Amino acid sequence: MVTEHAPAAAASAASKPDQDSLVCYFQGDYVRLGDAKVSIMTHAFLYGTAVFEGIRAYWNPDEKQLYALRVKEHIVRLRNSSKIMLMAELPSVEEFTEIVLQVLNKNHFQEDAYCRPSVYKSTQAIGVKLHGLTHDFYVLAIPMGDYIDTEKGIPTGTVSWRRTSDVSIPSRSKITGSYVNPAFSKTEAMLNGFDEAIVLTADGHVSEGSAENLFMVRDGTLITPSVTDEILEGITRAGIFEIAGYLGIPVKERSIDRSELYIADEVFLCGTGAQVSPVASVDHRAIGDSRVGPISKQISKTYFDAVRGRLPAFRHWVTPVYKSE
Ligand code: PMP
Questions:
Q1: Helix segments in the chain, DSSP class H
Q2: Pocket lining: 182 vs ligand 1, CB cutoff 6 Å
Q3: Which residues lie closer than 8 Å to 119 by C-beta, 6 or more apart?
């Protein structure tokens, strides 16, 4: 136990002074991240009864401008996640969006960043339930670069764990406790030598990555599992639909067999953290010629231009939050 904890503690101590002085929103105020603390008796800590979002903000070095990506869409999903968890009473989408933009703005980031708003059960009590508990929310932001490789294509593998079914824990709600499931998948994949997991549903269809949605290309058509295949209804996934429309690439939502991935022309993962991440292989089968395929390349280029506010057709995706002198 002690040896497992030691490296993590050392790593966090090294990065602590800077991180502690970042600005976050906590209990109704903008405070230092180092001062935002909850009791170990907090229900969300005891049982994972919180919901969250991950929002990226991109630094545009030419304009010296930080752009937040699709904040409103994330807040709408956060409110839906909260509703599923019986935490419906929240600030409006506009008020919540403003708090996210304020947190990003107050940190004066001049690099890519990641913002996490979360709504959590704040009652300090033992007892497994969702009803009759208080809730609160926080918003934090930290600097963050690429989460997985976005250029050369990554090796992936299917895992023995199955994506939690919506009849066990709602798939379309980003519930903190439910992330133990993708954590098992990601770790199994990585310990088996892959960069990312491909997770199947209980009936063996492809669901998604550990924290990414999945697309494959067959005969020029983009295909992705439908929202009833235990996926998170990804905001990047919806963005890929929009990009595909812009580029004139047909898209189909349908169930995907694992073996279809082995013979797909192209496969890529997408998500706020992962962005657009081409897949080089699945279970040791090369995808295409193991290099990033032409459709993935086109989509990826459009995505990375869009998120930094460089494409007029996608300006509605970004909100300017901070400009340096
Ligand atoms: N699936 C899961 C399980 C995730 O955690 C994420 C990341 N939020 C995604 C898919 C991708 O969703 P989004 O594009 O909204 O970030």
A1: 2-20, 43-47, 71-84, 93-106, 180-191, 235-247, 258-262, 294-307
A2: yes
A3: 50, 51, 52, 78, 81, 82, 85, 87, 90, 135, 136, 137
CA distance 306 to 126: 46
Q: Distance of alpha carbon 263 from its chain centroid, rounded?
A: 27
Average pLDDT of the residues in 286-314: 95
Residue 145: the pLDDT is: 80
Give the pair of three-digit tokens for residue 221: 């058509």
User: Rounded to the nearest whole angstrom, what is the distance from the C-alpha of residue 210 to the centroid of ligand 1?
Assistant: 8
Give the nearest ligand 1 atom to 77 CA. Answer: 15
Which sequence positions are flagged as catalytic? 174
Atom 11 in ligand 1: residue holding the nearest Cα: 271
What pLDDT digit, counting tens, does each position of 212-252 carry?
A: 999 999 999 999 999 999 999 999 999 999 999 999 999 99
- State both tokens at 163: 């994506």
Nearest CA to 44 out of 157, 159, 124 is that of 124
All structural domains of the chain, each given as residue ranges with its CATH number in brackets, are 15-145 (3.30.470.10), 154-307 (3.20.10.10)
